[in-house]
Amino acid sequence: MLMRTDPFRELDRFAHQMVSGAAPGTWSKPAAMPMDAYRAGDEFVVCFDLPGVSRDAIELDVERNILTVKAERRHLPGGDDVQMQVSERPLGVFSRQLFLGDTLDTERITADYEAGVLTLRIPIAEKAKPRRIEIAGTTGDRKEIQA
Fold first, then answer.
1. Which of 10, 31, 122, 126 is most buried, taking the most CB atoms under 10 A from its CB?
2. Domains of the chain: residue spans and CATH
3. Which residues sit opposite 62 in a β-bridge?
4. Order of strands, sheet of 66-73, starting from the edge strand that comes earlier in the sequence
5. Whole-angstrom Cα distance, residue 125 to residue 105?
6. CA-CA-CA-CA dihedral for 43, 95, 11, 52, to nearest 10
7. The pTM is what?
8. Cβ atoms 101, 65 nearer than 8 A
């Protein structure tokens, strides 16, 4: 039998339950999921930690440049004979929204899920990439500048 006593963890959990009005052992609102975001060349990469979440319990939606990631960590399968001894991992729905700029191509977002990490790749739109503009002059000389 596994037993662990951490009075401060239990106090924090109790305080959360009292403030949120949640029943013991539950979470009343979606919790934020940890994320890293960085630019790699011509795309943005966003990684979400979702340990213990199956691939079919993840939803991705884009509407008006708002990317919504929703995941659900479900109870472990078991019958009536299972008695939980320690329950520290939050269960339920986790949600996060990202506001994407107009310079990102939301039509070509790709998603991979491996080892509990959801990785999104969001390409930079062609219209936002630097390009060269040719300048015409009256003397017949042409000069290119980078915009």
1. 122
2. 30-75+90-146 (2.60.40.790)
3. 67
4. 58-63, 66-73, 92-99
5. 5
6. -80
7. 0.66
8. yes
Kindly give, in sequence order, each residue whose CB lies less than 8 Å from that of residue 27, ignoring residues fewer than 6 positions away: 20, 90, 91, 92
Query: Distance between the two ends of the chain, CA-based, in angstroms?
Result: 67
Instruction: Using pLDDT thresholds of 50, 70 and 90, give the confidence band for residue 146.
Output: low
CA angle 57, 59, 61 (to 5 degrees): 175
Per-residue pLDDT tens for 83-134?
877 777 778 888 999 999 888 999 999 999 999 999 999 999 877 677 788 8
CA-based nearest residue to 31, from 60, 86, 72, 62: 72
Contact 141, 90 (CB under 8 A): no
Q: In Å, what is the CA distance from 107 to each residue of 26, 71, 89, 91, 131? A: 36, 21, 35, 32, 21
